[in-house]
């Protein structure tokens, strides 16, 4: 059982990484902007929801998790379909904890950078 829990925390890392990268990083900015525009302007509810998925890390992490479960066959607690269900929601939850921690860390780093730049500017002025 401990190896299954270790696997849970390890598998959540690439899920979080992929979901964060697609929904936040510059490399996917054009795709994200396109999807945001489509989700806001589409008349069809299906199209709105489909395109919205690519703008929300929580939503997108569910689809990345499904892909990861298909690739790995990872099951938690049960050896049948229930194992996929439990592991799916568990992976999403852990991945989103990782993404929230990463987001907080980035905010702290940005704050530090801004404070350092202000202090350097003051030193340069004197």
Describe the structure.
Helix 1 packs across helix 4, helix 1 (2-24) packs across helix 5 (81-125) and helix 2 (29-41) runs antiparallel to helix 3 (45-52). This protein has 126 residues and is mainly alpha-helical. The mean pLDDT is 92. The chain has one domain (2-125). The radius of gyration is 19 Å and the shape is flat. Helix content is 83%, strand content 0%. The protein has helices spanning 2-24, 29-41, 45-52, 57-72, 81-125.
Which tags fit this structure?
126 residues; mainly alpha; 5 helices
In short:
With 126 residues, the protein is mainly α. Helices cover 83% and strands 0% of the residues. It has one domain (2-125).
Q: Kindly provide the radius of gyration, computed on alpha-carbon positions and rounded to a whole number of angstroms.
A: 19 Å
Number of helices: 5
> What is the structural class?
mainly alpha
Q: Uncertain regions: pLDDT < 50 for 5+ in a row?
A: none
The number of distinct β-strands equals 0
Q: Give the end-to-end Cα distance, rounded to a whole number of Å.
A: 62 Å
The average pLDDT value, as a whole number, equals 92
Shape: flat
Q: Could you give the order of the helices and strands?
A: HHHHH
Largest sheet: none
Into which percent range does the helicity of residues fall? over 70%
Portion in strands? under 5%
How many distinct folded domains?
1
């Amino acid at each position: 059982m401990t190896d299954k829990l270790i696997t849970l925390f390890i598998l959540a890392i690439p899920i979080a990484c992929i979901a964060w990268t697609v929904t936040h990083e510059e490399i996917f900015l054009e795709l994200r902007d396109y999807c945001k525009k489509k989700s806001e302007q589409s008349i069809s509810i299906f199209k709105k929801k489909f395109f919205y998925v690519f703008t929300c890390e929580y939503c997108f992490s569910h689809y990345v998790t499904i892909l990861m479960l298909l690739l790995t066959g990872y099951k938690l607690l049960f050896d049948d379909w229930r194992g996929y269900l439990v592991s799916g929601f568990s992976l999403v939850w852990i991945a989103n904890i990782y993404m929230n921690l990463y987001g907080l860390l980035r905010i702290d780093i940005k704050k530090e950078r801004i404070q350092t730049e202000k202090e350097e500017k003051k030193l340069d002025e004197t």
